[in-house]
Amino acid sequence: MPDTVSQPRLLLRRLHSVMGGDGGAQERLDRVVRVIAQNMVAEVCSVYLARAGEVLELFSTEGLKEEAVHRTRLHVGEGLVGLVAERGLPLNLSEAPKHPRFAYRPETGEDMYHSFLGVPILRHGKVTGVLVVQNVAARLYSPEEVEALQTIAMVLAELVNSGDLVNIDELSEDATALGQSQTLNGLSLVSGIAAGVAVFSKPQIRITKTIADSVREERQRLEDAIAHMRLQLEEMLEHPDLAHGGEHREVLETYRLFAYDRGWQDKMREAVGSGLTAEAAVERVQQENRARMAKIRDPYLRERILDFEDLAGRLIRIIQGETGDERQQLTEDSVLVARTVGPAELMDFDRQFLKAVILEEGSSTAHVTIIARAMGIPVMGQIPDLLSHVEPGDEVVVDTAHDHVYVRPNEEVIESYRDAVKVQEQLFAEYEAERGLPVETLDGERVDLLMNAGLLADLPSLDSTGAEGIGLFRTEFQFMVSPALPRVDEQTKVYSAVLDAAGDKPVVFRTLDIGGDKPVPFLPREPEENPAMGWRAIRVALERPALLRYQLRALLYAAAGRSLHVMFPMIAEVAELKKCKAILQKEIERLDRFGKERPKEIQVGCMFEVPSLAWQLDSLLEEVDFLSIGTNDLMQFFFACDRSNPKLADRYDMLAPSALSFLRMVIAACHKADVPVTLCGEMGGRAVEAMALVALGLKRLSVSPSSVGTVKRLLRSVDMNQLRAFLVEHIQSPEHSVRDSLIMFARDHAIKI
């Protein structure tokens, strides 16, 4: 094994000495490349650095032709070097010229080299260069050599990212835009409108020393910091904002478990043992996590890795002497700006002035989104290159209704924001005034308007919105944040709290819809090409019946003496529903055997979200007490269109005549069988779609709490006979959608959309 592995600390010290020696940056880089080649026993060692326009330029080499330096350039994704930069992961090949991405550059003379090992040089999770070693002999480099080169790349990053070789500003394509007014697009994660000055989550972490003077001392620094971080998290859970229970508290408790993860800690300890300082060891392990995260498609798993990102940043700051025990004091209305934010980090800010959060990443299932929703803070996520557009102190306006963030807004935008706030306040006042009024059209047709929920934090909206009940309570979140299957008594507490909060209003509990894009930590998981159509929801429950049995048992316990409405998701055939009902019946009989009190009534329903059920409707409706149409999944299966694919986001419209005709058929069958039918997908919460649905004969809608006021106001301004006649005229249209026609109808008839 080469010296790099047998004497890693010696090599790191030598590199550090060379990097800090005399001469310019280019001269020092050339010396470093020679040292690496010697210690890796490589015929070639080269460094490519990122330039503007996603170009990688050969900056230094030992073994390739000297005239290629600063002449050879590859785009990110081009050639093997470009592939390393594109993936952000090491590439280890024994026959490089045979790889389909191999790009021959005659000026380098590298065609004679067979073995290739390239690793990314990273800065704050972004690739700023590629370090390569090559050999004439065809062989794969050992895992120890790959690990060693990755560690070398981290140390080399000090020199590369100093700005002496490539100006760091050059790599920010939008640097010239700073100081100008900009509109950024993103995705609304927690609704609301807000404004304030930009504040960054934490100052950029700078690791100024990477090589340990004493491994023993660095190990102690790491252990002390881990202990301090754990203490912080224990104290955080006692914060007044989390005094009451709920899923947001469970998020932080799960986050705390990550801080005790042995695998994560052991990797950091190994990195310290290789000769790195404690903070450099944490960053070294986190670089690996970032690289893995970039390749994970599953959003839930990506977000769990982001929890480690937040923990790593917190740990490095503790190592560097920042205790983090004081909350960040804000003195004016502020908007938090970050690539991502850990679930505990919001607790570090003064809630009085924190008005919104904007993120480069983030999703609706992210832990930070759940915490922010519980705290009532608007969040916008998935804003590309956000950090290159905003500087601390910039004025920022966040408008989640239009998925826009305005940075350094001009006076016109500020005035529009003020107007929007006034309109919002006026609308809220109108919704409040109408809260107790029935949802009744101008010609006297009643519509039941319920709300969707999934968190205990959502429940106060029942009173504030005037919703007539909960038409869909998603039960899976408690399972998604638990490292083990939640016990029956833990589940019972949650369901009891929901029923207590609802009082006399009905609650429809949907059983577990896990799997697909909602994995749980305690179940093994295999990759799926089409997870939305894979092992999920009732398919998981029937294959693992203990999951369903325990959940139904908890629901029955919680509903003792009360009404219980239970609904099974992702039913594709009546036979599946019968199996679910049989399990429920066994749990009811178990209640009787143990002398437990039954619910006073039990109603059983299922989600209609798989089109195959349309051809078993008569049989299905004989088996259920109610039906709920889940348009989110139903429409993606109906159109064979992945709703998470941005290229298809606007391709199909839920107001397509074919979709409306299909829904009308299902609704009519339910009315004929005298089975109540509710629509609980996102479609029902949008004004124009809600118009169409009630015109199709739907009498029950379950929407997000934020949509209750909007939909109620709209329906109270509709003459249903006129609208129904209009829709019947257009439902057989060959057009892509009837949306524009409905909007014109609404305007012509003073409908409040």
Structural key phrases:
eight-stranded parallel beta sheet; disordered N terminus; about 750 residues; 25 helices; alpha/beta; 22 strands; elongated; eight-stranded mixed beta sheet
Task: Explain what this protein looks like in three dimensions.
The structure is a single chain. By secondary structure, the chain is of the alpha/beta class. About 40% of the residues lie in helices and about 15% in strands. The protein is built from 25 helices and 22 strands. Strands 7-14-13-9-10-11-12-8 form an eight-stranded mixed beta sheet. Strands 21-20-19-18-17-16-15-22 form an eight-stranded parallel beta sheet. The protein has a six-stranded antiparallel beta sheet with strand order 3-2-1-6-5-4, sandwiched between helices. Strand 15, helix 13 and strand 16 (about 470-475) form a beta-alpha-beta unit. Helix 6 packs across helix 10 and helix 9 (about 280-295) packs antiparallel against helix 10 (about 300-320). The protein is elongated, with a radius of gyration of 30 Å. The chain starts with a helix and ends in a 5-residue tail after the last helix. The model is unreliable at about 1-5, about 175-180 and about 240-245 (pLDDT under 50).
Rg of Cα set = 30 Å
Low-confidence stretches: 1-6, 173-178, 242-247
Report how far the terminal alpha carbons are from each other.
72 Å
Q: Count the helices. How many?
A: 25
Q: What is the helical fraction, as a range of percent?
A: 40-55%
Task: Output the structural class.
Answer: alpha/beta
Count of extended strands: 22
What's the pLDDT, averaged over the residues? 84
Strand content: 15-25%
Largest sheet: 8 strands, mixed
Task: State the strand order across the main sheet.
Answer: 7-14-13-9-10-11-12-8
